[in-house]
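Memo to structure team: turn this sequence into structure tokens by end of day. - J.P.
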Amino acid sequence: MCSDEKSRARLPGICFALRCEEPRTMAGASRGGAKDPNEPRNEYLNLVALALWLFGIHLNLIVVLVTLFILPNPWAITALVLWLSQILLPLHTDTPFTNRIARFISKYAPTHFPIETHVEDIDSLDPKRAYVFAVEPHSVLPISIIALTKHYGLLPLNKVKALASSADSLPHSLVRHIYKVYGICDLSNYSFCCFEHALINSDYTRVSYQIFWTPILRHVWSWLGLVPASRKYYTELLQDGYSTILIPGGVQECLYLEYGHETIFLKKRYGFVRGAIEAGAPLVPCFCFGQSEVYHYWKPSGQWYAHLSRAIGFTPLIFWGMYGSPIPYPNPMYLVIGKLIDVEKNSNPSHEQISEVHKKFIAAMEELFEKHKVAAGYKDTTLTVR
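Reply from structure team:
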């Protein structure tokens, strides 16, 4: 329970806040990598953790631009090959070193904002079961999901993975252009580069796989418990007893980014519901207020922009944080974890069964938003479900 009297008065459930004066512990929940509220805030460590977590996105873009437009061809080819060769290094996702990195990021990065979390029914979460935590909105980056990961230590669950996709990794068309310009490999022979087929001819979500074939991001995000967003991974994780964190609306929600208004893309998203029913995994609706305010952004408007985004497979936008850097603004975030929606396990669910659960989920998400937006400080913000 929070020591913040204002928070206690406004929240009818269980409140966790990184700014609380009392330790954020409770029956059935582990603090894990969560920050000790009595420990002084360290701005330097906050920035280091954020840079480890997020700066890889911009760093890759900088490397590509430098090699394309500044370095002469021989040097550019060498630099690009050396940079891309990092993705061939093994991940080693469960070693003392990688776990220390993940715990460091999970401990210090969230305190930059900070992230306050509210769980409506923590007692309903059984460590022996798998759940689907469906989080909205996507925003520029869905960075609030770090509060649901294993290393953060909020949820009483030991097996948790997050399905990640992003509009900000290297676009499919740009990667093709780089290979063609510098002749790194012959696109007609995918076997020339051992990662070429996975990067350019992926059988799954094109954009999300690019993250995991991107230097720096591939390793750091994997250490944090993120995996590519694909039906294959989603199904296998649930079958293996892992709770999954996903953003049902995905990067398409970036098309509808608008200050002071939230748009979530759910009405045509049935796949995550089907997967939950097939595995018998309850759905848990989650909504994060304030996440859309941690970055400033600019994007074109008009139908041509939507058509372009669909054609190239990602949503191009310009975003920036503090001082024009990738470090997000320290805007407080308020993540609400709603009550679970139980589902009846069915390895071959009918369209009617999927539609029924899908309607329940959308209704629960809308209710979650309206119920908590005043407490979160966003009473004037509106929500549209597309």
